[in-house]
Amino acid sequence: MPTVPTDHHAYFGGKRVLVTGGLGFIGSNLAHRLVSLGADVLLVDSLIPEYGGNVFNVHGIEDCLRINIADMRDEHGLRYLVQEQDLIFNLAGQVSHTDSMTDPYTDLEINARSQLSLLEACRHGNPATKVVFASTRQIYGRPEYLPVDERHPLRPADVNGINKLAGEWYHMVYHQVYGLPTVSLRLTNTYGPRMRIRDARQTFIGWWFRQLLEGQTLTIFGDGLQVRDFNYIDDVVEALLMVAATEAADGQIYNLGSDDPINLINLARLLIEINGGGQYELRPFPTDRKRIDIGDYYGDYRRIRSKLGWRPLVGLRDGMTRSLDYFRQHLEHYI
Q1: CATH code at 155?
Q2: Domain membership flag for residue 65
Q3: Overall domain count for the chain
Q4: What DSSP designation does 221 have?
């Protein structure tokens, strides 16, 4: 019977690890941690500007890993890249909900077809490798109840959610049918150092960081009472490591979540307080955003807590403070 390792960090020493989307927000933070744990790390990223890859994200560890600039849509390249890898953290994706509605075919190619291509490359070229997939709470759509657990109906509210759901289920089917070790984490709003803050296309919280640091007014769409939950990047990286090192997680799907969901007005007030100044304003929802807004959301992470022992350790105030401090110091590299 598979058990949860008592020290899952030791598992990564000497492991050959591929991280897709490795120069992006989550991938690069994961890379820093993997290097510190002694893994042999290969990062793959397309560095397409709109998708968040940033070479500065691996500043300080660039000599401790390898980087391959490649696109997940290149099937032949994937077959080469997956060879001899012990683990694959599959984090590459198109995450903008509005972009998925204006350009649904690109979203389909990146979030669905490319995921299938990666799994096919593993099935034929490296069937023993384990694949950890970064899914999203967006696949639930507008919640029927709160907090949202893994049994909640799946009704994506936009094209991005549909394609991410397809990507997740490709991973589950390849485990069930072919025995490929796969696991999926349904992430909620992840934030922290190295996230994309150039604009609001991928995440509003990153854009808020930039607005605060540049003395701009924070924009909140709607009445500002919509509730969200947030996970600091270090907690998300820990969850990724935990499921990767744990055989009992194979074939499973887990929500992440937090203990302190908050409405957007109160979040804006918290950030302004931490920053030592700033202001916010309420604006009507743009039509394109209103159509795909999911209202209140916060997740139930009891399953991963009870099965694997994961829980978020970084509180909202602490995480937001760390984030603002990082971007205040390195802003020139992110705008």
Answers
A1: 3.40.50.720
A2: yes
A3: 1
A4: E
pLDDT above 90 as % of the chain? 87
Residue with tokens 């030791």: 10
Structural domain contains residue 279: no
Buried b (16+ CB within 10 A) or exposed e, 146-183: bbbebebeeebbbbbbbbbbbbbbbbbebbeeeebbbb
Would you say residue 326 lies in a domain?
no
Instruction: Tell me the pTM.
Output: 0.96
Dihedral-angle region of residue 273 (phi above 0 means left; psi in -120 to 50 means alpha; beta otherwise)? alpha
Q: Strands, DSSP E only, in the chain?
A: 16-20, 40-45, 66-69, 87-90, 130-136, 182-187, 189-191, 218-221, 227-228, 230-232, 253-255, 262-263, 280-283
The number of beta carbons lying within 10 Å of the beta carbon of residue 129 is 22
Q: Is residue 30 part of a domain?
A: yes
Question: pLDDT, tens digit, for every residue of 66-113?
Answer: 999 998 888 889 999 999 999 999 999 888 888 889 999 999 999 999
Query: Which of the 8 DSSP states describes residue 68?
Result: E
What range does the domain containing 188 cover? Answer: 8-195+230-259+299-313
DSSP letter (8 states) at residue 185: E
Contact 108, 134 (CB under 8 A): no
The C-alpha atoms of residue 111 and residue 14 are separated, in whole angstroms, by: 30
Q: Which residues pair with 135 in a beta bridge?
A: 186
Angle at 91 between CA 194 and CA 118, to 5 degrees: 150
